[in-house]
Write a sequence for this structure.
C-alpha cells in the first residue's frame, strides 16, 4: 500500500521515473540504439533460405543506419558489433550444423555423434563474438564518412554496408 503523503512528495520533487530526467539521458540514450541494432541484425538471417523473409533485409539495414545516425567511431563500432551479434546469433542453426559436419567428418570421423554436435556448438560459441566484430568495423569505417544531412546520410550508410 502506498502512502498518499509520499506520492505527493514525489510529484513535488520532480519526475518519478529517473530515466526521464535530463541528467540520466547520457546513460540511457544508448539503450534504444543497441536494441535497434540487435533486432536489425536478427532480421538479416530471416531473409535467407529456411525462413525466406527477404523483404526484411532492407529494413534491417535501414534500422542499422538509423541507430548509427550521427555516431562517432567508437559508438558505431559498438552498435555494429551488436548488429553482428544479432546476425550471427540468428544464424546459429546454419553455423552449428556446418561446424558439426566439418568437425565430424574431417576431425572426428563420425559426423552423427554427440561429440560432433557438442564441438560444433562449442566452436560457434567461440566464433560468435569474433565474427560479429567484422560488422562493428564495417560500421565504424562507414561512420568516418563525411556528414550528410538526414536521409541522404542514411542511404549512403546502407550502401556503404553493402
Amino acid at each position: 500500500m502506498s502512502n498518499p503523503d509520499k506520492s505527493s512528495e514525489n510529484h513535488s520533487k520532480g519526475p518519478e521515473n529517473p530515466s526521464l530526467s535530463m541528467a540520466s539521458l547520457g546513460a540511457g540514450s544508448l539503450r534504444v540504439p543497441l536494441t535497434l541494432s540487435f533486432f536489425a541484425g536478427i532480421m538479416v538471417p530471416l531473409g535467407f533460405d529456411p525462413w525466406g523473409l527477404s523483404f526484411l533485409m532492407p529494413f534491417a539495414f535501414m534500422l542499422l543506419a538509423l541507430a548509427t545516425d550521427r555516431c562517432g567511431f567508437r559508438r558505431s563500432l559498438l552498435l555494429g558489433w551488436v548488429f553482428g551479434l544479432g546476425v550471427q546469433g540468428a544464424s546459429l542453426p546454419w553455423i552449428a550444423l556446418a561446424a558439426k559436419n566439418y568437425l565430424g567428418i574431417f576431425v572426428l570421423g563420425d559426423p552423427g555423434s554427440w561429440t560432433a554436435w557438442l564441438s560444433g556448438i562449442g566452436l560457434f560459441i567461440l566464433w560468435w563474438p569474433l565474427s560479429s566484430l567484422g560488422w562493428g568495423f564495417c560500421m565504424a569505417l562507414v561512420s568516418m564518412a563525411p556528414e550528410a544531412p538526414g536521409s541522404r546520410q542514411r542511404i549512403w550508410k546502407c550502401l556503404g554496408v553493402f
